[in-house]
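The passage that follows is intended for readers who have already worked through the single-chain material. We present the inputs for a multi-component assembly, then the predicted structure in tokenized form, and finally a short commentary. You are encouraged to pause after the input and sketch how you expect the pieces to fit together before reading on.
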Amino acid sequence: MRGWIIPIGGKLCTPAILERFIDLSGGSAARIAVIPTASSEPDMGTYYEREFQRHGVRTVKALNFERRTDCDDADWLEWLGTATGVFLTGGNQLKLSSILGGTPVAKLLRVRHAEGMHIAGTSAGAAYLSEHMIASGSEGATPRVGMVNLCAGLGLTNRIIVDQHFRQRDRLGRLLTALAYNPFCVGFGVDEDTAAFIGPDETAEILGTGAVTIVDPSQVQYCAVAEAAPGETIDFVGVQVHVLGTGSTFNLHSRVVTPAAHAVPLTYR
Amino acid sequence: MRGWIIPIGGKLCTPAILERFIDLSGGSAARIAVIPTASSEPDMGTYYEREFQRHGVRTVKALNFERRTDCDDADWLEWLGTATGVFLTGGNQLKLSSILGGTPVAKLLRVRHAEGMHIAGTSAGAAYLSEHMIASGSEGATPRVGMVNLCAGLGLTNRIIVDQHFRQRDRLGRLLTALAYNPFCVGFGVDEDTAAFIGPDETAEILGTGAVTIVDPSQVQYCAVAEAAPGETIDFVGVQVHVLGTGSTFNLHSRVVTPAAHAVPLTYR
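Having made your guess, compare it with the prediction:
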């Protein structure tokens, strides 16, 4: 059974998010690897080592893969090989994809995750988790041709595209654009201080002070992305949007939504 | 055993390419589905029906999914369910991804391909085959931030990124840019009238009058994509490039190259 996939929208304050990740990973017996590769702040790894220790984790280690050549380090690979949870910090997601991509580290993360190791990422770390990663883009609510740049991410799932700092940075338009190119994926717009805990059964549980905006284009009847010119609005008809706060769930497979205070699951397909 | 994946670089003239695809699909007993969705020319489906008939295929049918609602057509889905080979025409690859993406057609193509059905695509059809698709980009040999737009493709494999009309449209730069974002994938720059026949054992065999330029970033030591500004050159160190003509092979798993007239396979990793 694969491990949990946990995108966090940045600006992590609510202790419950880190605590749930630690619980899943074995509680005080968890072995947490922190990967601060996305960050350019030299003490980011140390900061999270202390954060996890403060939450009772005895075994935590920052593995700062700064260059592609670091990704062959036998000791660090061995450490990753026995971790129960991995935490990817914020920064620039292109550092994650361009430094780890195609190296033994990315391979090991995929293999261990398939075996049951959990992987959480905040901000840039959240963007990187999926097969399709938003590398950069423009702000605004209206989808327009060219307003988002996608590339290959870590590849723990190909079903979702994550966008982070979602409400705070007005990113609905770029997430819609990413989905308009191919309405196969489901968009997860994750607000700051909010997480989606996506379990092995493909149910995402929302936890935090903001919301996760689920953008599901599976029922789209019309999408004009192939006809629109660069910069033009993309006509996009039939997109399903769910705004889900803490305690709500969404199943990626069945597309069943269960709002926190609603007794009955809602099916829409 | 999965079916063959066959990207063709456009401007298909050499009969051997279509003949090999037909042979793989069962020869005169082949059941070929032509999907002309990428094209805006109304007779593209009929053109390829005749082409396949001219090559001895008795059972060939053009399924022109023009709108997302066409992708629920029970008769066409049933036809696809028994095809032995599928041929995607040229046009605009964003029509393929935005019309077929997330519909029963894309799902069925992936399922049947996993079961052994072969899928060939020329030009836009070639771009669409992989999980990561080049939607558009600029010409030139030098990789620059922002010169390529990627999105989700059909997803028959996540190992390759295909670019087509490769030499004719000077596309090395945009393929390098796509790989610089994440050096996990291998680039296949496919010239016109040239195909890569990628078998279930992950060996690609080149056939045609041009070449396939294989761009393998797995040994890259340094990639500056995260630091470079939009439009700037991306420093990219240690990219392996193989230019392979007809009869040469490349294995995606072992990375062994065998040039056509060379007696011994060449291993470089």
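Commentary: Chain A is about 25% helix and 25% strand. Chain A has a mean pLDDT of 96. How closely did your sketch match?
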